[in-house]
Amino acid sequence: MPLPLNRSRQLQQRAESLLPGGVDSPVRAFRSVGGDPPFVTRAEGAYLYDEDGNRYVDMFGSWGPMILGHAFPPVVEAIREAAGRSASFGASTAAEADLALMVQECFPSIEKLRFVNSGTEACMTAIRLARGFTGRNFVIKFEGCYHGHSDSLLVKAGSGVATLGIPGSAGVPAETAMHTLALPFNDLEAVRAAFAARPKEIACIIVEPVVGNAGAIAPLPGYLNGLRDIAHRHGALLILDEVMTGFRLSLGGAQRLYDIKPDLTTLGKIIGGGLPCAAFGGRAEIMNYLAPLGPVYQAGTLSGNPLAMAAGIATLQHLIENEQAIYPQLQKTTEAIATGVAAIAREAGVPLMTNQVGSMFTWFFTSNMVTNFASASTSDTAAFGRFHRAMLEAGVWLPPSQFEAAFVSTAHGPAEVKAILDAALRSLQTS
Ligand code: KE4
Fold first, then answer.
1. Which atom of ligand 1 lies at the shortest distance from residue 276's CA?
2. Which is deepest, 196, 296, 345, 401, by most CB within 10 Å?
């Protein structure tokens, strides 16, 4: 049994008097799974440690960035060394192009890129760039996909929006939302129809190539190339939002895995090794539309920040140097966890559909195949909530939402797999 969350509860009460919901990001409030969110004091390897002396196997890895586990020594050392030379200059540094070269090595479709501070900024700017480059206003996204919280993209979004069961967001003018066409994922016919209705008005398609924000959902065979063909036939751009899948599913993200060449790519999470860093990039002729070269404006005080560059370089360096060992191992460990718990659920008579791609996966509490947001929504979110609470009590911290992906790091090994399966055995018999 875990130690009581007395200190965490006190901290939650104090936080609620200062931060809406006591959090800086809604999903952390545990609203959809219930129970008190533990307050974390530190993390190391595959483990989170809370203020009350409990230890948890971390299954969300800061929502993706911590692929090498927490406090990975080379990353910590790189940040420490950079911090000693000041946290930010607001001037150009060699490190920005150093990291950009590494990104380009992993993503050959990225001829030029720009660093920003969050996936939201990367996706928001990629949309603006597509609109500026094509002179068109409409954008196609997919139900359950989440591309950050910029106005144009908070339409039928996934992640926290889906978790809270809200259709979109207050504060987004109808005039803005009307330019966003939200279609079902994995349905090329719906995309063809959208272009037929607006043949010369759609600037781009933005898609999570493997959806993570509705829970994990893989593209059906031919789907991604189908999107690219339809977009290009109508003079629109294809933007792959690889904020979550970049460096996660392979060193070259989903676009290497599925052999698809987008016009623009957004990246985040792993690229900064846990520090605020993201990027967008692609064909040079499109990227050159950006200020100071072109008419599309974008800027950022802390963009390309020396600490984030140092953490990103150390992270990518380790992934690049150890690629052949890391990705097969991540796949193997994730498979052991995802299918191991699925087998326990089968034994316990609990309907569970497991979607796994590489080291990201989701256990959907439904017996339906999950290929889009509508099928993901058939999940029993109350059952997921009971499971989440039971697993947390058993020392395993799952992402606190049915509509999120879980992530495995290189720090997860046989001991962690065993701990997760033991916890699931206890949890699925009681939840
Ligand atoms: P950020 O602005 O949160 O850095 O990135 C937005 C974003 C864009 N694109 C994809 C594919 C993403 O997954 C995200 C952010 N992911 C969520 C978790 N699914 C962030 C967690 C949170 O909102 O607290």
1. 4
2. 401
